[in-house]
Specification:
alpha/beta, single chain
Length: 258
């Protein structure tokens, strides 16, 4: 027996709480706004941590890895390559590891188990500032972004400025994993050999080819500590005495083991 058409209509529920259950689970606009805001804050914090600790994300390619590994055997190393091939970046990453004592699991190069004193420089203070300092510390003219280079922001304890070159630093005090501090001193070849005659140091990084007298002074500074010398540059001066030291001598890369 067919039921009256009206009865079917009257049996359908019109209660809004049961008619559209999907609608009841939708977040309120205010809740959605709060959720998006929280996600934005989290993303900003993740980006800040990444930008202020880029050393943790450093992954060398084959030639960079070979350069790093050679440090376990040789006191003197040269990474000579064309422009934009990562030689200075590799030099900066390794310098930051030695200064902080933060070595990645894949590291097979030389390790310093204590805080160090390091000299690092290029042809002029402007070039040192725009190359070595920028990669290690961050944009020279924007102090708010210091700590976005390979030395993590949390590891930069103090800096001293150099007069005569806007944004240039004279030194950086770096927190080491042992709890003590390393010292980074910025230099320039244009100062001449005499200005590289600092106290005994553990590590010297020349970015761009140094004059022969400056190069040998760097080696002298590391003799007492059996320290290391790293050179990164694009060959623009032909077969100079520094290049010949690596390419033509029988022992090529190094004079002795650490």
């Amino acid at each position: 027996m067919r039921e009256p058409a009206g009865k079917n209509v009257s049996n359908r529920s019109c209660d809004p709480l049961t008619a559209t259950p999907e609608a009841s689970s939708r977040p309120e606009p205010s809740d959605l706004h709060a959720l998006l805001k929280e996600q934005a804050v989290l993303m900003a914090e993740l980006d800040r941590r990444r930008r202020t600790n880029i050393l943790a994300g450093y992954r060398p390619y084959a030639r960079q890895r070979e350069f790093h590994a050679a440090g376990a055997t040789f006191r003197e190393r040269l990474f000579m390559a064309g422009n934009q091939l990562g030689k200075t970046l590799a030099g900066a990453a390794e310098a930051a590891m030695h200064l902080t004592g933060r070595y990645p699991n894949w590291w097979v190069g030389r390790r310093f188990d204590k805080p160090i004193v390091m000299l690092a420089g290029s042809e002029s203070y402007e070039l040192t500032r725009d190359g070595v300092q920028r990669l290690l510390v961050g944009p020279p003219l924007n102090e708010e972004d210091w700590g976005t280079g390979f030395i993590p922001k949390a590891a930069i304890q103090a800096t001293t400025r150099r007069s005569g070159a806007s944004g240039a630093l004279d030194s950086v005090t770096v927190r080491h994993v042992t709890g003590s501090t390393s010292t980074l001193l910025f230099k320039a070849y244009e100062q001449g050999r005499g200005k590289w005659q600092a106290n005994t140091v553990d590590y010297v990084w020349f970015d761009e080819e140094p004059p022969e007298d400056v190069y040998f002074e760097g080696i002298t500074r590391t003799n007492a500590t059996r320290g290391s010398v790293a050179v990164t540059f694009t060959p623009l001066k032909g077969l100079s005495s520094v290049v010949a030291r690596y390419l033509m001598e029988s022992r090529r890369i190094a004079r002795s083991s650490p």
